[in-house]
Amino acid sequence: FIIIGAVVQVLFIVLFVMCIFNEKLVLAVCRFCLKLLCRMKIFHDYDEHYEKLLSMIKQYKECGALLRRETGLLIKVFLCNLAQRLSVILVSVCVFLAVGGKAVCAFKAFSVQALAVLGSNAVPIPGAVGVADYILLSGFKQLVHDPVSVELLSRGMSFYSTILFCGILLLCVLIKMKTVKKHDL
Predict the structure, then answer these.
(1) Does the CA dihedral 130-132-133-135 come out positive or negative?
(2) At residue 101, what are phi and psi to the nearest 5 degrees?
(3) pLDDT digits (tens, 9 = 90+) for 144-169
(4) Could you tell me the pTM of the whole model?
């Protein structure tokens, strides 16, 4: 699952970059695939799907133009996304250390959680939870005596801390909106 996850993510990155920056190549490949799917009787109306394809490629082209203009914003979004993913991964590492894991094995715990995230990203949502559980349990089994407790505690802390953080952030936004609204009146 880890290898499949990595391959799928790389393929999607390549596809999205091609959609944004190389419209003609993507159109040619997608047109070929669409014709093939129509010949195989998976899709029935070529023209309808082709119009949807053109619309989608146009949206990606507009997105590419926006990315070229707003590179700084793109970097900020990337860094925020990276920080979010690292914080989720580090919850498991902190729980691992809190239940008596050795500090010298902290990088191994980080690697286990990172690989679980990578492996579960390639599987549709209902199956991703099981894949993540399997990878985490098999990885943490080598590091701690009770990997189930570490995994459940990590998941619970990640979930509730995310809910708490989002609630606080939402409250701050609401307070800011109310104060701005009062000043406008």
Answers:
(1) positive
(2) -65, 150
(3) 878 787 877 887 888 888 889 889 99
(4) 0.57
